[in-house]
Amino acid sequence: MAEDAFNEHRPLLFTIAYEIVGSASDAEDVLQESYLRWSAVDQESVEHARAYLVRVVTRQSLNHLRAVRARREEYVGTWLPEPIRTAPEVSEDAILAESVSMAMMLVLETLNPTERAVFVLHDVFGYTHGEIASSVGRSEVAVRQIAHRARRHVHARRRRFEPDSDAGREIVQRFLRAAATGEIQSLMDLLAPDVVQISDGGGKVVAARRPITGRADVARFVLGVIRSTTPATRAEPATYNGMPAARFVTDGVLDWLVAFEIHDGRITGLYGVRNPDKLHRTDAVLPLDRGGHGTWKP
User: Which residues span the membrane (predicted)?
Assistant: First the structure.
């Protein structure tokens, strides 16, 4: 049955779509459109279902990404990817964890759609240039050149990254305790000198419009945010995009979500999503699957 074959590969297909379009909701839309196309073909004529489905999802992801690029350029404030709650095993796959991290998703956003798809398929999922060529409508030689250009671009902009771990979660807990008690020096001690704080409110809620850099400024910003919360707000530990995170919930409603980037025992990045449009589906743990053997070295 068409549905059985599609569901078998759904985690892989969702992961590819999410990494190309940068939104869980949009990735689900891509999968819905891809399933409709898959169900309309003669299943017996398809020799390799997974390869066929990857091509369909890649093409639909590219079409979707090209359609939303203009909207993202007009986005109010800083755009962050829609966060996804990830299972512990995602953090055990270093390539997968880094590829869906907030920092890497922001780097991917600076690639053009074709470069992004080629990089994701080749370096993260391990597909050959020849296999990718049929998915993006380019020759194998062109794909090889695109992959080289995209890889150079990504490596020049990638930030240091360590997947979610017990040590990382302990650092986040210490950070939250210091923020709750207003201990600015304790906060600064947990931050790297070049730490970056990025907020995404989408123009719908109060959020910093520009990134904040440096531990003194980031610490003061965090304390200001904490002071603005109500006594009913509580912080819940979680894992999002392969990173330790905290969910800030008030009266059962998720107000904002912060994912923490950690390197060498210090927090190097805080990614705060407050746009309510990106928080409505953050409770479920979404299955991710890389499937291949990517060439990228985290």
Answer: none
Burial of 49 (0-12, 13-18, 19+ CB in 10 A): middle
Can you tell me which residue has the tokens 């807990």?
173
How many helices (H) and strands (E) would you count in the chain?
Answer: 13, 6
**Which CATH number is 2-157 given?**
1.20.140
Residue recorded with tokens 């020096």: 185
Q: For residues 13 and 126, what is the distance between their CA atoms, to the nearest angstrom?
A: 14
Quick: pLDDT tens for 7-54. Answer: 999 999 999 999 999 999 999 999 999 999 999 888 878 888 999 999
**Under 8 Å between Cβ of 95 and 261:** no
Handedness of CA 152, 161, 97, 95 (dihedral sign): positive
Its CATH architecture, for the domain 166-278, is Roll (3.10)
Q: Averaged over 96-114, what is the pLDDT?
A: 94
Distance CA 176, CA 85 (A): 20
* CB 120 within 8 Å of CB 21: no
Alpha-carbon gap, residue 26 to 21, rounded angstroms: 7
Q: So where are the chain's domains? A: 2-157, 166-278
Q: How far is CA 9 from the centre of its chain?
A: 20
Residue among 98, 31, 46 nearest 261 (CA): 98
Average pLDDT over residues 233-253: 92
- The count of C-alpha atoms lying within 13 angstroms of the C-alpha of 89, restricted to the half-sphere facing its C-beta, is 6
Q: Of how many residues is the chain composed?
A: 298
